[in-house]
Structure formats: C-alpha cells, structure tokens
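Re: [help] complex structure
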Amino acid sequence: MRLWKNLIVACAVSLLSAFSASAADAKDVKIGFVVKQPEEPWFQDEWKFADAAAKEKGFTLVKIGAEDGEKALAAIDNLGAQGAQGVIICTPDVKLGPGLVARANANQLKLMTVDDRLVDSKGRPLEKVPHMGISATKIGEAVGQAIVDQIKARGWNMKEVGAIRVSYDQLPTAKERVEGAISVLKKNGFLAQNIFDAPQSKTDTEAALNAANVVLNKNAGLKKWVAFGLNDEAVLGAVRATETAGLKAADVVGIGIGGSDASINEFKKSAPTGFYGSIIISPKRHGYETALNMFNWVSTGKEPEKLILTSGELATRDTYKDVRKQLGL
Ligand code: FCA
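Output below.
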C-alpha cells in the first residue's frame, strides 16, 4: 500500500514539473516574423494570425518589416541579438536565399519561409528550408477560369478581348500565377496576341496602375478588357487604369488573388467595379500555422514539413462573406 502511495506521489510530482517546464519553455521561446511589405493587408493578416498562435502558446513573436535585402539581413541579426531561436520570413528578394540561410545559421536561428520561396544563384528553390506557399499554378488557373466564365456570361466575343498581364516575373510564385491564368485563357480560345505584359516595378497598386496605363494607351482599339496578376493589389492597379481610360465596369473583368482588405474594400463599394472577384487564400494558415510549426520546431525539435502548398477559393462581392466564413477568416 505504502509503495503504491509513494509511486502515485512521485508520478504526480514529475507530471507537475513537466508541465511547469513546458510553460517556462514557451515563455523563453522568441520567434521572428519578417515580411517584405508590412503595409499590405495580406501581411497584416498574416501577422495577426501569427500573433494569435503566440498568445495561445505563450511564446514571444517579434514582427519586423523588411522592404529590401539589407533590412532583411539586419532583421536576422537583430533577432539573433535578441536571443530569438527561429525566424519565418517572406523575403523582399528570393535571390537572397543563400545569404539569408548563412545569416540565420550564423545567428543560430531556425529558418522557415512563407509565401515567397528562396532560390539559389541558378534560380532553383532552396528545398532544405521549410516553406509554406500557395499552389500558385492552380490558383492562377482558377483566376483564368473565373475570367473565361465571366467573358461567356457577358456574351463577349473572346477574340475581341484584351488581357492585362500585370507581371513581376523575377518572383517565381508571381510568374506561376499569371502563367496559370494564361494557360486557361488560351485553352478557351483567347488570342495570344491580345495578352499584354504590364511589368510592375514593385508589387503594389501604384506600380500596377502605371504599368497597366501603358498597355491601355497603346491598345485603345480594344474595348473589353480582363486583368490578372500576382495579387489583389496588382489587379486593383489595372482596374484603376481601365477607369482612367474611360472604360465602364461592365467592360472589365479583373480577378485578384488574396482576399484581404484590399479586395474586401472594393467589394463593399456601393456599385460594382471592374474588380469582379478574388481568389481568397488563407492568411490564417500562412500566419498561424507557420508560427505554430516554428514554435514546435524550437520547443520539441520536430521539424516542419519541407513544403506545404495551400489552396484558394473564388469570391465575388456577392459571395465573399460566406467564403471567408467557410475559411475561418
Ligand atoms: C506574395 C505576394 C503577396 C501574397 C503572397 C501569398 O508574397 O506578394 O501579395 O499574394 O505571395
């Protein structure tokens, strides 16, 4: 009897100390979340969901905006100096890949990437760095399909429609997204010569607007337009350019990718604009899940999957509330 009692007491004591150890561990964990464009609603949402993971698990999240390579490297040094154990980054330049890996190693930081995958000097992905991104080609195809469906619903002659391809081809996920859209357009009879490249210098609305203006000015003969690009901001820029060119919303179909405030604010306008829809992707998975995966890696040594690709869902001004609810947003 006595032996049993002792055993039970011993078990309870060790369980208690295990609990308090893990609580203390969580408090000691510090994780950086570095993003290339902190003002973009998508990244604000990613941070919001990463914060939720930090609150739930009790670790510290340090959010840093890094708009260029120098700032990204400095952010990693800064995190190292603060005693962080891990960093999740959406880098301003994927070609920084080997440099970022070296800097993270030098600071003894575990490294994960989100959204934009690091590449080496030959443009090949750094497969050893765990990454969560979107299924770029598939989501691009969904954009293309939504455009084709609208062209048909509006009774347009496919051969008389122009397409603005807002491009940022130095970023592989951006190129895959627009190429996915183009493949579906072409399969449905869209003329290749009516697809015009509008290269943006930065991935924001203003740069997209400037690039799209050039295309529209050069091709004033076309009266119906569709637009696609890397994200909602790219397509919003193109849609704003069609408005400047005097085109009506009924003659424009823009489909973005994202589904954060950039597109929601557009859907909330009293009258529809040429921004017809957006493929809603999940800032919750990209923020909450990456932060949780990093926390587990730091605290238990369990390395995250090397590659996780997330999906998206089309939403329009009529459906976005329901789609967001379904996605837990
Ligand atoms: C890239 C884009 C962002 C977002 C993310 C998933 O980083 O720049 O707008 O689409 O991929």
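The two ends are 55 Å apart (CA to CA).
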